Amino acid sequence: NNTKDIRLLGLLPITGKSWIGGGATKLPVKLALEDIRANGSILPGYNITYDYIDSQCSPGIAVYRMFEKLHTQPPYHMLLGDSCSVCSEATSQVSHLWNLTQLSPGSSSPILSDRIRFPKYYRLAMPDQQLNDLRIHMMKSLFNWKIAATLHQALEFFSVVTDDFVGKASANNITLLSQEIFMHDPYWRVQNLKKHDVRIIMTALYEDKARSVLCAAYKVGLFGPKIVWVFVGWFSERFWLISDPLIGCTPEQMAQAAEGAFLTSAVPFNPVDEIGVGGMTVSRFLSRWEVHPEHTPDMDSFKSSMGQAYDHIWMSALALDCADKKLRSIGHLKTIGDFTYKDSDIGEIVFQCMGNQSIIGMSGRISFSKGGADPNKMMLLQRIQGAKRINLGYYRQDTNPKIFEWIPGALVWKDNKIPRDSTLVTQKEIRIPPALYITICVLSGLGIIIVFLFLSFNIYYRNNRFVKLSSPNINNVLLFGCVLCYVTVFIRPTGNVTSTMCQARVVCFCLAFTITFSALFSKTWRVYRIFTNKKLLKRTIKDIQLFAMIAVIVMLLTAILIVWQIVSPFEVERNELENEKNVVGNDEEVRFFVQTCVSKQSTYFAWTIYIFEGMMLSFGAFLAWETRHVTIEALNDSHQIGLCLYNVVILSAVALTLSLVLEDQVVLLYGITSGFLIFGTTLTQLFVFVPKVHAVFTKVDCTLKGMTATANTGQGQP
Ligand code: ABU
Predict the structure, then answer these.
(1) Sorted alphabetically, which Pfam families does this protein's record hold (predicted)?
(2) What is d(CA 188, CA 213) in angstroms, rounded to the nearest whole number?
(3) Closest CA relative to residue 688, chosen from 464, 445, 530, 523
(4) Hey, which of 107, 237, 264 would you mutate to test ligand 1's pocket, going by the most ligand atoms within 8 Å of its Cβ?
(5) Is pLDDT of 706 > 50?
(6) Of 70, 562, 650, 663, whose CB is crowded by the most CB atoms within 10 A?
(7) pLDDT at 279 over 50
């Protein structure tokens, strides 16, 4: 028996954590070997055999066990595997030193395309960075998502995939809110994603880490219909339900966290129902696999790897057959069966033959582009819906432009709502409600009518002795101040405000207050001057002097206001109201803001005005106190001034306190301050004018004869 063995060595991740589909690939390998042997035309005169090691998806173990095998005789003719990229990377950096060609059925790390680092390496899997095209298409064209985040395991494999996504995202105007990397426990990275309020998360990791991520997502609350996790589709069929006591989540919790996640992968089987190697269609292949006595239900978890596993045996047999024929055709002293690890020329021929293979496999049409094995495959989009993986559609790279073909009715959103890439925030300005504004304006208007009634009274009875004695001209100035007070409330503090309106409101109010009280106090000053200085009893203090006094006070105030607006003019500022949010509908939020008047130095100038007005009020209080015994009712307003002061101090104190407490409640604040202003102004004019009206209509005697004039000068009675 001269039959020589053609020996294939498989590197299978059978046990371990990251990906353990190697065991399940033994059955399609067996089917392929049977079919090749039965074919008869491939490697005639040779007996093709397959041996394997369990790499445990661990680079160290893969290299160690491969070395052990390669140091035993007879030599292997080709290395097959690993299906874990980390093992493929480690082994294929050295396997070429044995002059071995290495073919992996399932490694998908992009870096494996590097011919300098991995000189004799081929793979049937599409590199994962190509899946980014589908992910970008899904975001941009399918769901109109423009904001995402990335999370990847700290391995070169996943860093390169993520870098590729970052570049493509940037080119497509997709904003990445956060890019998280983790080595062992992803909890804090997931927590960080939650803090960034991300919705769409592109992951690049092994499936054991995917479980840790989903468990962390459950713990931090980053799951549910608003959250979209995107994983690779080469994970085992129900990867999220595989129990792992180390991660600390129940299957129910994992199911909740995984629900709605998307999965992207290359299409695992030939989408065309055509006869391929082995003389079978995909459906025939799958039915053979399913009914095989060695088939077990747990193999179904890795069904998507079965086509590639079958095909890679065929590819290796065909490449070795090609090399054997080539050796014979060039009259080489050796055949493929005589290969030793020192035969670099034979190794190179095998490598070239592999690169030239082209088959219709169970996983699709396979051929290697120049320089690598990166087939352009159709891609599959899946989603976890109802705790099952559902195929949603295919991304066709063979069309120009590339298109996505939906499987009708497959995609079912919760409540028929597509999740958003971020909360849809609508900004709404808080304005004074028309009803409140109109009410305030009507009340203010009524106040102005009262002002005009008192003005008419003053004019009509200007020759009445009582009215004459009460300084009607100064009273008219006071009434003018009251009108300005009423006008102030017409200028709204929020809603389409301009800096001019801001200025107008402050100027109007300050002038109103100053004119009203300076007019009131100027009259009292006249009484004070007359009754505290006996020489003046025979002299009159003319109205013009009082006007001058009012003018000086008003000019001083005006000077402060002018300097204020020069140094630090009012600007309209938009204030977001953090506590005022309304969550509505499908992840929509209404955030409220107010437009308010601000001046950077307002504290200093406001306090200057408070002190100025305070001094004026204090002086007025002093005059009222000093003239309290002057009982000429027509002449002396000291009692009314007392009431006005009491009124204004109480109202101002309450208004100031409320304005601090209700800083954000602009509407309430406007209502209260306007109410106080109208109330205070009305009371002031009523206090001042009602006694006069009453005196005129009841004909009070106001001749000097009937009067007692005493003033507390501190020197006893006059
Ligand atoms: N067949 C699973 C792919 C995983 C990897 O490339 O490591």
Answers:
(1) 7tm_3 (PF00003), ANF_receptor (PF01094)
(2) 10
(3) 523
(4) 107
(5) no
(6) 70
(7) yes
Mean of all residue pLDDT scores within the chain: 89
Joined together, the tokens standing for residue 284 give: 């025939």
Confidence of residue 716 (pLDDT cuts 50, 70, 90): very low
Residue reference for tokens 């690049």: 204
What pLDDT was estimated at residue 627? 77
Selection from 59, 97, 93, 95 nearest residue 80 by Cα: 95
Which residue's CA is minimally distant from atom 3 of ligand 1? 107
Q: What is the pTM of this model?
A: 0.74
Instruction: Give one DSSP letter per residue of 24-89, joined into a string.
Output: GGHHHHHHHHHHHHHH-SSSTTEEEEEEEEE-TT-HHHHHHHHHHHHTSSSPPSEEEE-SSHHHHH
pLDDT tens for 541-598 read: 788 888 999 999 999 999 999 999 999 998 888 888 877 777 777 788 888 888 888 8
Which atom of ligand 1 lies at the shortest distance from residue 106's CA? 1
* Sign of the Cα pseudo-torsion (120, 125, 128, 133, in order): positive
Residue 25's closest CA among 236, 315, 309, 364?
A: 309
And the tokens for 281?
């269609």
- Cβ neighbour number for residue 628 with a 10 Å cutoff: 16
Ligand 1, residues at Cβ distance < 6 Å: 19, 83-85, 106-109, 234, 305
Ligand 1, residue 21: give the atom nearest the CA.
Answer: 1
Residue 245 C-alpha to ligand 1 middle, in angstroms? 23
Distance from the CA of 383 to the center of ligand 1, in angstroms?
Answer: 19
pLDDT digits (tens, 9 = 90+) for 319-378: 999 999 999 999 999 999 999 999 999 999 999 999 999 999 999 988 887 655 445 678
The pLDDT tens digits for 453-474 are 999 998 888 888 777 777 788 8
Residue ID of nearest Cα to ligand 1 atom 1: 106
Nearest atom of ligand 1 to the alpha carbon of 84: 7
Amino acid 549 reads M
